Amino acid sequence: TPGEPIKCRAAVAWGAKQPIKIEEVWVDPPKEGEVRVRVIANALCHTDMYTLDGEDPEGLFPCILGHEAGAVVVDVGPGVTSVAPGDRVIPCYTPECRRLDCIFCQSDKTNLCPRIRGTQGKGLMPDGTSRFRLASSDERLFHFMGCSTFSEFTVLAEISCAKISPAAPLEQVCLLGCGVATGWGAVWNTVKVEAGSTVAVFGLGAVGLAVVQAARIAGAREIFAIDVNAAKFDAARELGASVCINPRDLPDGTSIVAELQRRTSWGVDYTFDATGSTQVMRDALEAAHRGWGVSCVIGVAGAGKEIATRPFQLVTGRTWKGTAFGGWKSRTHVPQLVRRVLSGELPVHRYITHTFDGLEGTQAAIDALHSGDCLRAVVRY
Ligand code: NAD
Ligand code: AHE
Ligand code: ZN
């Protein structure tokens, strides 16, 4: 019944480095400007693991993780006009309020709408409360990244719901909720790779591989794909990498920066960190081309970590940038990306290496992501 709490199952993260537990929870009805959805498919992103490992300075427990999903609207709160029950949506951790007084939504320089960022970072809905309660004790559970999709039902802000084509297979397009969309957008929006340029990508998870795929589509002349796990190289080559390098295989005394400089003479036009390692971020910046190289940080670094380099690297023409969700304005652009996936223009099937059925598959998906041979594990609820 609309307006009533829904009892369902969710994977609850009880604390840092503790296994998630499947629990019965109450999902309270959507309040003003909110939308309650049934999650159909959820993919795991490294950021969920990072938070579960206690690395996220904003991490709060107990919470319901998950932010890369496809869902169907169940009911909506007062004032909601952009989605209705039955609509397919992708929950987006970067919202888009579109208000005329939002200087971020009104600018084409950014996707970082701050409308609900304060409460989202505190694990709460925009009114400062939670919609999740443990069924056994009524204990409140925190939300995560405005999504909390490791649950059969969740509540989202309307401004976090990208309404997509009813034809979209949610077990595939859920990948557009984070990693794959982020990698594409880093290339096309954040640094704007031009045809004929050289590109280096550090870290070949789904995010880094999406950088490879997008750089190939942008017409990059040479794409260096770098990972310490050579099991990622087949996928990288399939998606368009021209050279795969394992830094651990380089001769003693040869750094990855020196190797990239040797292969390009003055460095790489565009470099990307998709690892979250601050040493890799430094290497990526220093491997960028003298005079014009641009390096983009995509990975998220653990609490307390800082980046460093000699200012000389910037003085001599390198630019250090970063991206959140690839610069996509979520409600505007995610439906467009879904259409391009549906048309066959932007295939995403290569990223889905594991599929599990039922919420209890979430732990198996976590184990898969840790195994080293997984890009995205999709759990179908
Ligand atoms: P993943 O864990 O699947 O992939 C990371 C890859 O990096 C792995 O293949 C690993 O072997 C490789 N790696 C680790 N250390 C390395 C090193 N020193 N040198 C080279 N390769 C190394 O992760 P993912 O889901 O693809 O996410 C990648 C990063 O991007 C994570 O930090 C994630 O939290 C972050 N992320 C950021 C955004 C954003 O909007 N900025 C969005 C999604 C994910
Ligand atoms: N909460 C952390 C940082 C986590 C972080 O940087 N998240 C990325 C998205 S990762 C998606 O898998 C991001 O876009 N951040 C922008 C934002 O507004 O959260 C911290 O350092 O506090
Ligand atoms: Zn993510």
UniProtKB/TrEMBL annotation:
Cofactors named for this entry: Zn(2+)
Keywords from the named record: Hydrolase, Metal-binding, NAD, Oxidoreductase, Serine esterase, Signal, Zinc
GO annotations of cellular component type: cytosol
GO molecular function: carboxylic ester hydrolase activity; S-(hydroxymethyl)glutathione dehydrogenase [NAD(P)+] activity; S-formylglutathione hydrolase activity; zinc ion binding
BP GO terms, sorted: formaldehyde catabolic process
Main EC class the enzyme belongs to: hydrolase
EC numbers, comma separated: 3.1.2.12
Sequence ranges assigned to domain Enoyl reductase (ER) in this UniProt record: 15-379
Superkingdom of the organism of origin: Eukaryota
Similarity-based family: Belongs to the esterase D family.
Protein name listed in UniProt: S-formylglutathione hydrolase
Organism: Diacronema lutheri
Shown segment, full-protein numbering: 61 to 441 of 739
